[in-house]
Amino acid sequence: MRRLLLVIILAAGVMSIILHCNLWRTNDNWSPHIDVERKEELIACAFKSNISVLLNVNKLYPFLCAENFLKVSELHGSHRIELPYGIKRAERYFQLALSRLPHCELFGEDDGSLCKKCVVVGNGGVLRNKRLGETIDSYDVIIRMNNGPVIGYEEDVGRRTTFRLFYPESVFSDPVHHDPNTTAVLVVFKPHDLKWLWDVISGLGLIRTSGFWKKPAMRLIYSLNQIRILDPAITKRAAHEWLHLPTRFTKQEKPKHPTTGLIAITFALHMCNEVHLAGFKYNFTDRNSALHYYGNDTMSLMIQNGYHDIVAEQRLLKELIDQNIVINLTEE
Asked: Can you say whether the dihedral through the CA atoms of 173, 174, 180, 183 is positive or negative?
């Protein structure tokens, strides 16, 4: 009986290795800079099976790189789609912005492990007084978004930030928030976003501010080494494959897009073998409840927002949590 169990265990182990080898073999273009040794580590640190099913065995490298973004975009079909989820008619702007960014790797060369346990920290008011800061700081990778502050809120949200997703209207401009250990990831929604990035990093002095829903940052607190551009294919997956948002809208309709928070979760699911969440629960029954863990905005502001389908996002998050694809640290 023991021999039979041993044979079954060994067979299961071999099948698992074959499965994950095939998974990575079908995604040879996942990273432009991964060597064989580190690829073997990725196989050993393969995703939980339910995450693999969610990704449909099609893992996308999250950042665009100057030397191959056209080839990668063709591979993903992004060259046939205009922004915000493709590059069509904006190729030149992508090329200009990427030409100024010296790096596109996911983690630094001195990072010895690619097996990551990640937490995505939302900006929801549910984080208030939860005192999760120490827990959040214990993760390998901490992902935040927009201008959710750390300073002054350390007990609830932690001190460290590995990645911070942003767009021009939401990025920090006050140097007090600068963290040299943070990688700032631009989520592109329109050509103006790329023109803005070129303006602020080119040093030419002219920063165009038209075409934004509010005035964008006039300077970046991050160095060029810290900046990446998210592949629009990641955002497209969140919008169309997971949220099933319409691909076309009438002139009378406001186009709906995923929130930066959901894009950050999608980003995490493509690079982490385990994903936890904090700060993603909203109270729709009380319009006066706190929208964020900081500031005085209330839920009424979110309810009035016509550019996001928050109900659909909350439903999707519940499914991800119920299926144990992600773990929620702030569920009440």
From this structure: negative
Look at residue 286 in the predicted model and tell me its pLDDT: 80
Q: Does 13 map to a domain?
A: no
* Residues listed for the chain: 332
For the chain, the domain total comes to 1
| 33 vs 80, more confident | 80
The two three-digit tokens of residue 298, written as one number: 């209330």
Domain interval for residue 183:
48-328
Q: Mind listing the pLDDT tens digit for each residue in 116-133?
A: 999 999 999 999 999 999
On whether the CB atoms of residues 193 and 167 are closer than 8 A, the answer is yes
* Residue 32 forms part of a structural domain: no
Could you give the count of Cα atoms lying within 13 Å of 49 in the half-sphere of its Cβ? Answer: 3
pTM score: 0.86
Read off the CATH number of the domain in which 214 is found.
Answer: 3.90.1480.20
The residue among 174, 144, 172, 146 whose CA lies nearest residue 157 is 144
The Cβ-side half-sphere exposure at 173, using a 13 Å CA radius, reads: 10
Cα dihedral sign for 261, 262, 266, 272? positive
